[in-house]
Specification:
Order of helices and strands: HHHHHHHHHHHHHHHHHHH
Radius of gyration: 23 Å
Structural class: mainly alpha
Number of helices: 19
Distance between the termini: 26 Å
Helix content: over 70%
């Protein structure tokens, strides 16, 4: 990313906003877990699995399609066609989401009884079904604003949406929800749905204002053929993968209950998926912000046939994601026990956090590789890999959970994510024609392992210090080791300082 790169500054803005939003969301999740317990948290995760499946099926690949086609039109210098693109995306999203929402409304009682095994969650599922079309239309608008580089607008709307959701949920929990898990789930659904409506209205108003300022008056026919060509393969693969993921989430408590050492399967599931994973993925907000911006940037570069910039961005993105992933993994590994006690008052949560922390670099790099492949028009290949690994995941869980318990879940999680990453990386190398060197990644990983093991020799503290002290020591040891082993150099720090200085100079020179 060169000096003055809009990707760099967009990433900084989106990262800062998403970090704050994720911090607020995670704090609220901690509050919820304390209020409804591990079993209630597990129940909420099962509702989210059904909700996410319905959204994936209802959206049918339209967010990525809107982002890709909008970026393509901008890259070819045809912004006047974006209105037609978004109009077609809206029609497509409305038809698909209305069909899926109607099915979800009708089958909500059956889903709650047979799959989730708690009839009290049926109202929550029906509320999500009612607002599903609005959420899918919001996906179209966020895709456009991302492609257009209107990150500041998305940040502001995201803040308002999150505050609206949390505020209303907290109010309903306090006045009506109590400690009943079913009511608590309905309160969360109501807050989320109201926030979706609010965010969609604001995004539509902002879009109308943008078009009025640009003076776009031409009414073009929506490119339904192009929309179907891009969205259909994404939709098919996403639906298959999301269906397998939902089946996997609903399967885990049922198969886990067959393991001899399981006392409360829903509570165990809630600890791993509802408590540990949000903490594990919290630092990924930084890379996910970069990944969101890489899709339209690579689309523009591919449309403009800028092969040299594609290779440069791909190498830099992989390097940044690897180094950041190793930093985050060590921090979580070193402070796992203290974080488990501090956030959830649970030693089990801390133990599982330390177990999953070494997988962080793999998970974070996979997100960036997927984003680059999508930007290069490799959605179909990505979709095939995702479906394959999801199918393997379900197979492994079905076989291993009754025999190994949560150990089987860990094995399945690690192996399938590794397979997915290797397949996606191979595709990226092929389409971008980059050459990767193994020396730097190996040196970086060895340094991270050594620094992580050395933190185990440090004295243990309680509370915040128990998380901050080992994490700070790890980062200090890691950076020193990287500099000694030539993983990073002073040139990297000067490059980063130049980016920030260039931004300040640009602001000072502007009228």
């Amino acid at each position: 990313m060169k000096k003055g790169s809009p990707i760099f500054y967009g990433t900084l803005l989106l990262t800062a906003a998403n970090l704050l939003l994720q911090l607020v969301a995670m704090s609220f999740r901690v509050y919820l877990s304390g209020r409804i317990g591990a079993a209630g948290t597990g129940l909420l995760q099962l509702i989210f699995a059904v909700r996410d499946l319905s959204f994936t099926m209802g959206a049918a690949g339209i967010r990525t399609c809107a982002m890709y086609l909008s970026a393509e039109e901008l890259g070819r210098g045809r912004p006047q066609r974006i209105g037609a693109v978004l109009s077609g995306c809206f029609h497509y999203a409305l038809v698909c989401s209305a069909v899926v929402g109607g099915c979800m409304w009708y089958f909500a009682p059956w889903l709650s009884e047979v799959w989730i095994a708690d009839p009290a969650v049926a109202p929550s599922l029906r509320l999500y079904a009612l607002f599903l079309p609005l959420r899918c239309l919001q996906g179209v608008m966020t895709g456009y604003f991302t492609a257009a580089g209107r990150i500041g607008s998305l940040v502001k709307v995201g803040f308002c949406e999150q505050l609206c959701s949390i505020g209303l949920t907290f109010f309903l929990l306090d006045r009506w929800g109590g400690e009943d898990a079913g009511r608590a789930c309905l309160c969360v659904a109501a807050g989320s749905c109201a926030a979706t409506l609010f965010a969609l209205v604001i995004l539509l108003l902002l879009y109308r204002l943008c078009r009025r300022e640009a003076g776009e008056r031409t009414a073009l026919c929506p490119p339904y053929g192009r929309i179907l060509k891009v969205a259909a393969p994404i939709a098919l693969a996403d639906d298959l993968r999301s269906g397998l993921n939902a089946f996997e989430n609903l399967l885990v408590p049922q198969r886990l209950a067959l393991f001899a050492g399981t006392v409360n399967a829903l509570a165990d599931y809630g600890i791993v998926c509802g408590m540990v994973f949000p903490v594990l993925m919290f630092p990924s907000v930084i890379l996910y912000s970069l990944a969101d911006l890489l899709v339209p940037e690579f689309s523009r570069c591919a449309a403009g046939r800028s092969g040299r910039r594609v290779r440069y961005l791909a190498k830099q993105s992989l390097r940044v994601s690897l180094l950041f992933g190793l930093c985050a993994a060590g921090v979580l590994f070193a402070g796992a026990d203290a974080l488990g006690e501090l956030l959830y008052e649970s030693a089990e949560a801390g133990a599982y956090l330390r177990l999953y922390a070494p997988l962080v670099p793999l998970l974070y790099m996979d997100a960036v590789v997927d984003a680059i492949c999508k930007g290069m028009g490799q959605q179909s290949a990505n979709a095939r890999y995702n479906v394959l690994t999801s199918f393997l995941d379900v197979t492994f869980l079905w076989v291993l959970l009754p025999r190994l318990g949560l150990g089987g879940y860990y094995f399945s999680f690690a192996i399938t994510h590794l397979i997915n990453f290797c397949l996606s990386l191979r595709r990226l190398i092929k389409v971008t024609e980059i050459r990767l060197e193994l020396g730097m990644p190996l040196r970086a990983a060895v340094c991270a392992i050594g620094a992580g093991l050395m933190t185990r020799l440090l004295p243990e503290y309680e509370g915040v210090m128990g998380a901050v002290f080992p994490a700070a020591c790890y980062l200090l040891l890691l950076v020193l080791a990287w500099m000694v082993c030539c993983v990073v150099s002073w040139e990297d720090f000067r490059w980063l300082r130049g980016l920030v200085a260039g931004r300040r100079e640009g602001r000072a020179a502007s009228p």
